[in-house]
Design a protein that fits this description.
alpha+beta; Aminopeptidase; seven-stranded mixed sheet; 4 helices; 7 strands; about 35% strand
Length: about 150
Amino acid sequence: MAHTVRYASTTQDRDLAYELRRLVFEVEQGVPRPLDRDAYDFNADHVVVFDEDGTCVGTGRAVRLDSRTCQVGRMATLPTTRKSGVGGSVLEALERMAELRGLREIVVHSQVPAVNFYTRRGYVAEGETFLEEGIPHLKMRKMLLVR
């Protein structure tokens, strides 16, 4: 599947990302709507992915935690585009942005079914499984290369 990845630099891009998150988290996974959106959305780096028809099929964000670390989250892809490389493209773009910002590590609270997705991309699990919004998660970390 051909797709285009870009940083969400407009209100329209972010609105499309929020709508995709609503479809995946609220409709598909049953996460209450107020819990999907938070104050971090305003300062996060967001990525959006579009298919050939201009439909937003993937999104994610990176939130700076401190001078060396960010947290990747709110990663979502349309069910019809899963396992087609969209999620990997989102994560790769967020990692590039973290490196450009001089960050050295990324943490993610991975939903348990997505642990292998992150493991294949160099993330290492830490600690025990925990519930976040009623969904089992595992904290994972990746150290970025210093260039």
